[in-house]
Amino acid sequence: MATMGGILDAQGRTEEEFLAAYDISAYPQPSVTVDDVVMTVDDNDLRVLLVRRGGHPFLGQWALPGGFVSMEESTDDAVVREVREETGIKVGDRIGYFEQLRTFSAPYRDPRGRIISVAYMALLPSARIGGMEAGDDASDAAWFSVRLIGDDGECVMLTQVMDEEGDEEPVTLFLGDEGARAFFSEGRGDLGRLAFDHEEILKCAIARLRAKIVYSCIAFSLLDDPCCFTLTELRHVYEAVTGRRYDMGNFQRMFKNLFVKPGLAEANGAADTKGRPATTYEFVGKGYDEIVR
Amino acid sequence: MATMGGILDAQGRTEEEFLAAYDISAYPQPSVTVDDVVMTVDDNDLRVLLVRRGGHPFLGQWALPGGFVSMEESTDDAVVREVREETGIKVGDRIGYFEQLRTFSAPYRDPRGRIISVAYMALLPSARIGGMEAGDDASDAAWFSVRLIGDDGECVMLTQVMDEEGDEEPVTLFLGDEGARAFFSEGRGDLGRLAFDHEEILKCAIARLRAKIVYSCIAFSLLDDPCCFTLTELRHVYEAVTGRRYDMGNFQRMFKNLFVKPGLAEANGAADTKGRPATTYEFVGKGYDEIVR
DNA sequence: CGAATAGTGTCTCTAAGACAATATCGT
DNA sequence: ACGATATTGTCTTAGAGACACTATTCG
Fold first, then answer.
1. CA distance A64 to B52
2. pTM of the entire structure?
3. What pLDDT, on the 0 to 100 scale, is given for residue A265?
4. Rg (alpha carbons) of chain B, rounded to whole number
5. Quick check: bond before A57 cis, omega within 30?
6. Chain B, 117-136: which have a CB under 8 Å from a chain A CB?
């Protein structure tokens, strides 16, 4: 950014003199964090990544991965770093898709003090979620299946996805108004709710994803391989996110000439399903940059 | 927010003990500002509110109104306060509409240091922009007519809207790539561009508004009186924002049964136009809260 | 062959756009 | 009556959805 070094302000200072004397801490400074709603579609349902808080505040409660932004990085960079540190999972950097949701700034949203949080939504193919491991800040990380209850989807049920061999009871959380939560999760106390205002952030992400999947190409970032997929796989992504069923025939017509071009027939590989093998398609849409909210 | 006072962390502290000992400044703290793209539709074109910088940095250049967030207010509150202080114009608080765009956080976006900015878009009826006056931080505030150049609208021309009696030359700014700006605004140097990264923020707001006007009811917040307007007035808003022309007959059918119900015929008042007087309508859509980006 | 899944054809309905026709004002 | 603007009518086209039908695999 070129500056006009020659111009003097009301105190007769050049820009260089002004900047040299400028004390940025003269204005009060909030702390800034990022929080990320990492979502994927696996086994035909929508899932979200949560971490269990290993320290105060909200010790023991489930939360979105996130943390403090350092001085030399953008919030985009911070969110990639924090998710990596807390869960071992890589978001951004040409894997899947991510975008800002909005910034949450209510003065008392964090008991530690004035902390503003920039919230993100990240989408990952389920094939890329391997190698998950809890980091230093979180005593545990887990995927939760997202299910919407009620006509308007106001109440959200989160059910922990367990390993095959595990025999523990999966954790279930209910987000919604007080009445709904009291009805579904009686007796769990604060452990039945998300830390901070993360419930609001999560609902914001779900709403954004459901709205945006119908007018943008973000669905393709939830496919394991956007360069080789069947229309049934794509349909499952849409059905998991929107919660509605699509007619198979209409879905084919809607997409086969719109976003994709046929892939090689041989790429079908071994038919791991019964019935007629599906044609594979390749996503040829342009980059995600031009998507406007 | 109830807390689980009884649970101890790895150091054996309760949440109260942890919070009492917590030093928030142990993590580095960026400064946080807000910037607002205030827009209106007047005289059939889209206008944006800019202020001329009265101090370093970017002294003398045009910028979006905005400023530092204080410790006791949300960013929503800060944006209302700053626009009021710098221009005398009231946004939010049941006047028009406003929403967050996104947060801009590139590490060197501000020469004063590490400053993160939460950007907003605000829409106002042109009848509510009276009483504009420059405040302390800005040596001047003015409305600029927004005109998009090129097929993709990549280049934006901003022309200062002058008072009736004034005889000064209106300022014109060109936003776009280097080539376009060099072509249109040669010789103006930095005074021909916006301060900070406000060009990026403004483009983001224009894109958001143009995308959102077609699937939400934000157009009604640009009407002088959403409870008494004609379909021609509404059409002018759409035409100013989208830049396209609408067939008058089709536009009527599109809206008269969708968003509005007929107002009282007597409310038409004195016909300040030639031809058949128009019916007035009233916006009966629900609140703006349920609009998802 | 039958079950299962993939893909096509066809019909209806709705909404958008082009454009003609009619209605209602001021002068 | 005439100019100007508002409002309605009609026709065409495109897309979404319901649903029947055909195609291709496995066992």
1. 41
2. 0.92
3. 57
4. 23
5. yes
6. 118
